[in-house]
Amino acid sequence: MYDNSAFSQKRPVRVGLVGTGYTAKLRAEALVHDERSHLVAVVGHTPQKTEAFARDYQIMVVDSWQQLVEQDNVDLVMICTVTRDHGTIARQALESGKHVVVEYPLSVDVAEAEELVELAKAQKKLLHVEHIELLGGLHQALKQHLPKVGQVFFVRYNTIKPEHPAPRKWTYNHELFGFPLIGALSRLHRLVDLFGTVMSVNCHNRFWEIETQYYQSCFCDTHLCFNSGLLAHVVYGKGETLWQAERRFEVHGEDGGLIFDGDKGLLVQHGEKKPIEVGARQGLLAKDTTMVLDHLIDGTPLYVTPEESLYTLKVADAARRSAEMGLTIIVEDE
């Protein structure tokens, strides 16, 4: 699909990085330790922090992401910045003839995301939306043990993060993060990957806030009805009004259940409980980065397609509309 002749002739993939936060650092570490890639430049929001980042990795600082995506010495743009800007940067990078890797979601707007998927095809460039939750130990354990519980009829997935006080950062900003289940798209993508397409969504969402742009807490309660008949209940919350951290995933099937509480798993069947080993969550962004390079250079398949991420974005947007209108929303077909 792509012209990878330059890479296959042993020239490294030249990468420009948008962002200097935690994710960007993990990307940079993976890139500098892989001889198939060359980290060229970075652009950040805070000049002092960006300069320090550039010194750490001995790379060039670029004044703006607009300048970065147009540079001739960049083959691949990795977008590790606030959710709001993902779509805009991805579009200009693709239009400039660059391959693109972006953290989920591809965009906060479904129509824009659809356009970007088509643009990447037209440009014959890679568009990869990172979904490392699919690579993690919990998800792999779920996939391995699902056949043991028979027909699944109900799933519950709760992630609650108390923070006292809530940080005044972009993940608590309406515009920069987006609707909670769009900014935290992985909460729904894990379910879609496991259980397929969704028929309808009913969502209730509440914010606690003392100013317009930033909030101190959010609580998002969502019910999904899958086309298979499976029902799912997803709770996502963070901030000052929450008091007990929780990361729990329950699968209830006709022949048993799977209970994952934190990093501990159980298979429950007919009065017996068997522990399930759950692999570590560390190193997943490095694994994703390696897989991107494998794909660009050798053509090996990636673990997720932009179309799959786009579909989950449609489900998340249905949740947004449901919360705003107080109605159950029917999800469009793929």
UniProtKB/TrEMBL annotation:
Gfo/Idh/MocA-like oxidoreductase C-terminal domain sequence ranges: 148-326
The record places domain Gfo/Idh/MocA-like oxidoreductase N-terminal at 13-131
Instruction: Write one Pfam family the protein is assigned to.
Output: GFO_IDH_MocA_C
Q: Which InterPro entries match?
A: Gfo/Idh/MocA-like_OxRdtase_C (IPR004104), Gfo/Idh/MocA-like_OxRdtase_N (IPR000683), Gfo/Idh/MocA_Oxidoreductases (IPR051450), NAD(P)-bd_dom_sf (IPR036291)
Task: Note the Gene3D superfamilies from the entry.
Answer: Dihydrodipicolinate Reductase, domain 2, NAD(P)-binding Rossmann-like Domain
| Family of this protein | Belongs to the Gfo/Idh/MocA family.
Q: What is this protein called?
A: Gfo/Idh/MocA family oxidoreductase
Origin organism of this chain?
Brasilonema bromeliae SPC951
